[in-house]
Amino acid sequence: GETAVFETKIDGYPTPKVTWLLNGKPLTPKEGAQVEMNAATGEAKLSIPKVDLQQHAGTVTCRLENP
Predict the structure, then answer these.
(1) Which strands, in side-by-side order, build the sheet including 43-48?
(2) End-to-end Cα separation, the chain, in angstroms
(3) pLDDT digit string, tens, across residues 4-42
(4) What is the pTM of this model?
């Protein structure tokens, strides 16, 4: 029932697209994910409030894509 927070710092030009994954699948607001990106500081943050161990167990990955 706690909130899980994952943070990373990114750099690239143009600013990379950030996708957070849980067990290889993109996390969306439907799964309770809250994503924040600050292009000025390069900080990307994923928050998952009210973590459910059955729904949210596994590996979290931050994927960056730059065209």
Answers:
(1) 4-9, 43-48, 34-38
(2) 38
(3) 999 999 998 888 999 999 999 999 888 789 999 998 899
(4) 0.85
Q: Residue 34, Cα to own-chain centre: how many angstroms?
A: 8
- CB burial string 9-43: b at 16+ within 10 A, e below: ebeeeeebebebebeeeebeeeebbeeeeeeeeee
CATH T-level fold of 4-65: Immunoglobulin-like (2.60.40)
Mean pLDDT of 30-56: 90
33-38 own/partner pairs: CB under 8 Å, 24+ apart: none
Give the count of alpha carbons within 13 A of 55, CB side only.
Answer: 13
Q: Which two tokens stand for residue 31?
A: 């799964």
